[in-house]
Amino acid sequence: MAVDYTTHDGVAVITLNNPPVNGLGLSTRAGIVEGIERAQQDPAVTAIVLTGAGKAFSGGADITEFNTPKATQEPTLGTVIKAVEGSAKPVVAAIHSVAMGGGLELALGAHYRIAAVGAQIALPEVKLGILPGAGGTQRLPRAIGLEAALNMIVSGNVVMSEKLAGSGLFDEVVEGDLAKAALAFATKVGAQKGPHPKVRDRKIVHAEAQGFIQFARNTVATLAKQFPAPHKCIDAVEAGVLNGFDKGLAVERECFMALVQTPESRALRHAFFGERAASKIPDVPSDTPVRDIKSVAVIGAGTMGGGIAMNFLNAGIPVTLLETKQDALDRGLATIRKNYEGNVKKGKLTADALEQRLALLRPTLSYDDLKNADLIVEAVFEELGVKEQVFRQLDEVAKSGAILASNTSTLDVNRIAAFTKRPQDVIGMHFFSPANVMKLLEVVRGEHTSKDVLATVMKLAKKIRKTAVVSGVCDGFIGNRMVEQYIRQALFMLEEGALPAQVDKAIEKFGFAMGPFRMSDLAGNDIGWAIRKRRYQEQPDMHYSKIADRLCETGRFGQKTGGGWYDYKAGDRNAHPSKLVDDMIVAYSQETGATRRKISDDEIVERLVFALANEGAKILEEGIASKASDIDMVYLTGYGFPLYRGGPMLYADTVGLYNVERAIRRYASQPNGDAWKAASSIGELAQQGRGFNR
Ligand code: T1G
Predict the structure, then answer these.
(1) pLDDT over threshold 80, residue 694
(2) Ligand 1, closest atom to CA 61?
(3) Where in the chain is the domain with CATH 3.90.226.10?
């Protein structure tokens, strides 16, 4: 049973014991009700303590049960809370650590609550696209007031227990032995005559409730355009304010049942589990021993090298930063300091913390200073010959057991590893620019990369707060390999009848932060140009529209040259459609004999997103990625894919692979259709009525 029951001098202790976070799955819920009933029957018991074993009081409802029969099977959480609240003997919730979602709602059903200092308190359901569905929208405002409660419910943010000490949520917030304090408190209230206080009986007092709720609605309207949950949170709280607890509870229930079925909630839950699943590598046991990374060296103090170094400094890990020339090193150091000073200005960092981090940074021009580093990350020029020089030198200098990582975004990690006598210690760590900001880290596993090196880097990624996704070795790994197909389709559509502004607007309406042409103007059109030139040599059968090359031949590299696909005015980063470029595109179509046609926004979105999903399917078939959710995490954290769509693979599942395959077949029969070779797994999964993620 996921619940233990013991008694101590007249106090029954019900302990949730359902690792890893005491999720309130069916057996846990049933165990709590049984414990409450058992305590009622025992005349020796005068009070009840409800507590959690392990790392959490409770992390809330068991999200893995959602949309399965167990989720609504009695006793539901609502029933459990009613049993707790209805106990004739006082129930004291003893919260030693995390009390989140349904876990906090359970505690709110108790008559008293005692928390340890440092416990994480939250109703984070909104972050899963739902809302507190077991009375949280009704009890929390009665416990801590309308404003504080609405802030917590609509943001889903964690508040530390000590910050809520005087709020009416806790009867005591204790340092030291929580169990002892809880037993003493229970004994005390057990001796008192009932009835014992119920949070639901308290009043919500606010001088301007309606006004505040309207203010909350206005705030949410701007921040949560694509997410229905925050709006429903306010509806449920408002219903309780206007019509009382029971009516509010009924509205909460309706809102919950509506939200849990939405594609947005499915996407958010997918991202929640996808983030955690990414660190699980099928053939690398979770208890694989890891190497101790006490010091890091970064080679290259350019934009990437400086950003990479900052990640480790932020985690308190000393960094030796190597450059070949003093002026380059000085520039790199100045950029790092400037970035930190920017954070101090924004209030994200204190001046002391800035100095502490810079004190961990040791600049050098000598490889000799790298000899004690546990991990060395190179971020030098993206050219194999340069990488070869670096890795041959590292092979001489780095201590035995040091991990040698390349930040390459396109080169073959196996070839880089072959420049050393220790390929088992070589791995790819592909950071995304700006490296100190972007969460995504592609960890590229070479054919000889050892399992403990992989496990070490995955653990280190968590420490530097990156979402690490393991990729096998192929051109472009996961993200860039897929984005290449996305860009090909964007270019073909220009040739076939669309213009840059239409393509960007369509995909930005779908939810991308930035369309392909605005993005290219920002990153620099010459970067794509260099990749295409390499592609024309290495893979001539992968044909491209040459329209982008025409643009680059005129020197229009984007914002950095004052013009690219769009025109830019000095000091203004806004992209203005360029008549010159649009005319060039139309002329190019005529030159190639392409018949321009009206391309709908739907076709634009389908071709861009299905190009991603189709390439993602091939990446799965080749074993470059081990699961579809990994691919989704790459796109959600590295490429601006809209979170409420869940990633290209989940979106394809939502559309239905049957429909995706039909669309691919349709595009394959149109001009430039040779780019559409459907991944075989799409048809196979469609026939089985399955998706990539189920
Ligand atoms: N359900 C199922 N599994 C969960 C879970 C949950 N609520 N929370 C965590 N896990 C798993 C997670 O997938 C991972 O699994 C392991 O536990 C450790 O998690 C009615 C309906 C609690 C702060 O949104 O924020 O209550 O990968 O790596 O860093 O109103 O987990 O090991 O197999 O994150 O120590 C609301 C979500 C649910 C809290 C712990 N609750 N969880 O963080 O460990 S909806 C939440 C978290 C609800 C009610 C509604 C964190 C944590 P695996 P972890 P951690």
Answers:
(1) no
(2) 26
(3) 3-204
Q: Which residues are catalytic?
A: 105, 125
Pair type for strands 426-431 and 440-444: antiparallel
193: burial class by Cβ within 10 Å (0-12, 13-18, 19+)? Answer: exposed
Q: Is the CB of 102 under 6 A from ligand 1?
A: yes
Average pLDDT over the chain, rounded to whole? 96
Neighbours of 514 (CB within 10 A): 17
| pLDDT at residue number 10 | 97
Which one is predicted more confidently, 134 or 540? 134
Q: Which fold has domain 3-204?
A: 2-enoyl-CoA Hydratase; Chain A, domain 1 (3.90.226)
63 vs 309, more confident: 309
Angle at 92 between CA 91 and CA 96, to 5 degrees: 145
Whole-number Å distance, alpha carbon 367 to ligand 1 midpoint, is 44
pLDDT score of 58:
98
- Cα separation, 246 vs 594, whole angstroms: 65
pLDDT over 80 at 467, yes or no: yes
Domain limits, CATH 1.10.1040.50, in the chain: 479-687
Residue 101 in contact with ligand 1 by CB distance below 6 A: yes
Tokens of 470: 């393991």
Q: Would you identify the CATH topology of the domain 296-471? A: Rossmann fold (3.40.50)
Q: What percent of the chain has pLDDT over 90?
A: 93
